[in-house]
Structure prediction request, 542 residues.
Amino acid sequence: MSNTKARQGQPSEIELNRRAFRKSRKQKSTLVAVLSTIGFAIVAWLSLVNTPGWDRVQQSFFDYDTAVKALPHVLDGLLLNLRVLFFSAIGVLVFGLALALLRTLRAPIFTPIRLLVRGYVDLFRGLPLIIVLYLVGFGIPGLRLEFLGRIPAEVLGTTALILTYSAYVAEVFRAGIEAVHPSQRLAARSLGLTYAQSMRLVVLPQAFRKVAPPLMNDFVSLQKDVGLISVLGAVDAVRGAQIEVAHFANFTPYVIAGLLFVLLAIPTVRLADYVTGRLAKREQAGGVL
Amino acid sequence: MSELGPMILNVKGLHKSFEDKDVLKGIDLELYRGQIVALIGSSGSGKSTLLRCVNLLEEISDGQIFLNDEDISEPTINQDEVRRQIGLVFQAYNLFAHLSIEENITLALRHVKGLSTAEAKAKALALLDRIGLADKADEYPDKLSGGQQQRTAIMRAVALEPTLLLLDEVTSALDPELVGEVLELIRDLKAGGTSILMATHELTFARDVADWVVFLDGGVIIEEGPAKEFFGNPQNPRTIEFLQRLRRRAGDA
Prediction:
C-alpha cells in the first residue's frame, strides 16, 4: 500500500547496493532450499525402494491396478460422506449455537435449562463417538417405532454426529461469546437494545469472528469422522473401500479412501490457517477483534 | 447561572453496595435541562458507579432516581425503555468493532428507534459530518484514532436524542493531544442544549463548561457548587487537597 511505497525520486547509491545484496542473498537461499529438498527426496525414495520387503508392501498397499478398479466405488461412497458432512455441519452449527445461547441465559427461571445444557455438554464430550453411533444407529431402529418407518443408516449416523459435535461446538461458541469485551454489551444495552438484540446484533457477530479458527478445526475433525458412519452399514467411502478390499484381497482401496479424505481436508486446513493468521494480524495491528 | 429549566434528573439518597462494600453512601443530585454537571473525585470515589446506577446498569441498594419526574428505580419499570432515554459513553471500547463507523450509529437508530435504513443512514451521515468524520463513514473503528472513536461514540449516543447524556471519563484513555477535540464536541453539545452528567478529570474544562460541580470522595458528596465558586473558593479541606494534587500533576506533565 501507500505506506510501503519508496520515497519520491531516485534511491541513493548505497540503497541500490543494499537491494542488490539482499536480492542475491535471497536467490542463494532459494537455490539451497530447492537443492536440499530434491536431494533429501532422492535419498528417501532410494532407501525406501531398496528396503527388503518393499515389493510386498507395494503390492499390498499401493497396487496401481487395484487402485484404478476400486476408485469408482470409493468415490461413489465419498459422495455419501460429503452429503452427511453437509447436513451434519449445518445441524451442528444450529444445535451447538442453541446450546451455547441457552447456557448464557442468566435469569433464575432458566436455571433448569442451564443445568440441563451443562449436563448434556459434559455427557457428550466424554462419550466416545463410536458408542453414540452404536446407540443411535442400532438402538433406535431396535426400538421398532412404527411411526418412524425404516430410517436409512446415513440419517442415523448424521444424527449421532450432530449430537456429539454440538457439545464441542457449544463450548467453542460459549467461549467466543464470553470473549467479547463486556463494554460492547454495556454499550449495546445503554443504547436501549434489548438483551436479545444485543446478543444478535453486537455480541454474536463478534463472537463468530473470534471462534472461526477453532470452529474450523472442529470441522476438519468432523470431515474425517463422517467416515465412521460405515460401522452402521452405510455404503460410504470407507465401507466401499472395505468391500473392494475383500474383493481384491488387497489393501490399496483403504489407502485410496484415506488419501481422498486427506485431499478433502487440505483446503479446510489451509483456510483455517489463513483465517487464524489474518485474525492474529488484525489483533497485533491494534484492532479490537 | 441563569434561571433553571425543568429538572431532568433527581437522585435522592442513593446507596450502592457491592457485597459488603459500600460504594455510594447517600448521594443527592439534581440536574436541570441543558446543564452540564461534572462529577470529580479520585478513582474509586464512586463516580462511575453513580453513572451506571443512573443508567440502570447496576441495581441500587437504596434511594430513588427520578428521570423527568418518573421514578426509574422502581423494579417494575421497563429498563430498556429507560436506557433509550439515557445515553452512556465510557472510557474505551465503546464502538462496535465489527461494524463500520456509520453502521455503529445506524444500528440503534434502526433497531431501537425503528428508522428505515435510508433514514438512519442520512441521519448518521449528518452527525458524522458535524464532527468532520463523514469521509470515514465506511471505516472500521480500529482505523480511527482514539479521539475520533470517542467522538463517534458520543454522536452515536446523541443520535438517539437522549433526555440525558452520561459521560464516564470519556477522555481518560486518550492521548493528551486528542483530548481537546472530544472536549470541544461536548462544548458544542451543551451549546445545542443537551443535558449532560459527566465524570471527568479535566478540571479546566469543568470550570469553563460545567454549570455545577460535585466532588465525590469515599462514596459521599464532600462539596458541590456552581463551577466558578467551586474552583475559585473551595471550602472543604479535602476538596482543596484534591484540587491541589490534580493541579500539581497537571503542572508536572
User: Anything to note?
Assistant: Residues 151 and 182 of chain B are 6 Å apart (CA to CA). The interface with chain A takes residues 55, 57, 80-81, 83-88, 90, 92-98, 107-108, 111-112, 140-142, 153, 156-157, 160 of chain B (CB under 8 Å).
